[in-house]
Here is the input.
Amino acid sequence: MAKPNTLLKRTSNALLDHIATLDTGDTSLGSDSALARHFGVSRTTVRAAVEAMIAQGILARGAEGLEVLRRPDRTDYYAESETDGPQDQIERVFMQRVLLGDWRPGHMFSEAELARDSNASTVSVREFLIGFSRFGLIAKQPRGGWVLREFHDGFAAEVADMRELIELAALARMPRGGDPAIAEAAEALILRHREIEAAIARRHTEFAALDRDFHLWIIGFLNNRFAHDFYDIVSFLFHYHYQWDRHHEIERTAVAIAEHMAVLDALRAGSMPRARQGLETHLATSRASLKAGLRRDAA
Here is the structure.
């Protein structure tokens, strides 16, 4: 069953993203009806989101329509867990179990177990797992069971190739000219990276979630649902493998944090050539680390 107000919360976050691209005093948001068409929801949903933002001092209704009073900040957004639908919640729990557990190839798990942990029906869980299984990383077993499968270096190389194509294309779609919304988002991500970096020996296991947020933020500029869905495989492959490949774990995390921050610093400064160079470096490092790990496993 979907959480109450999930659609409203998603719409609110989407509207906040849209407002973040506008200047204070801008009145170009349009009517409630126009916003409803833009976001593909009812006027009732949009109106509820708008009224909440008026109460928060983000918007105001004036003679010329809705006016932007201030730019949104992170505290204005609903948490991602609050905007999840059933499939999103199943995916989140599944990835947490894989990335935070010690699940090596051959590990067995059940639909009932995942349904219980994600507070979802076994039918919804089965639908998710069947969809995910098309990539060959999990396989169906008798009586509602599933097993994690081993992957080979050829598969990993194909995923890395697609990752580079998608993320570099997304970076090319980012607005040029030192966009304030991009600078603000980059600054927020830099602060999160610094928090982990400052206590890396204790907090390096938190990096998988931050890494996902960093890359999904970039991919979001491609505005392509297939690219977004593909990142589930990227995250699964890279972080799943790293989770039980413990060689130089902290050092590898420190390198990734430094490479992320190089990209973010360039984006904050509005330097797209430097951002592209930094992202290319980071993706090459990730590919090399995964390849080296696979060689160790095969030895």
In short: Residues 110 and 143 are 9 Å apart (CA to CA). The chain has a mean pLDDT of 85. The chain is about 65% helix and 5% strand.
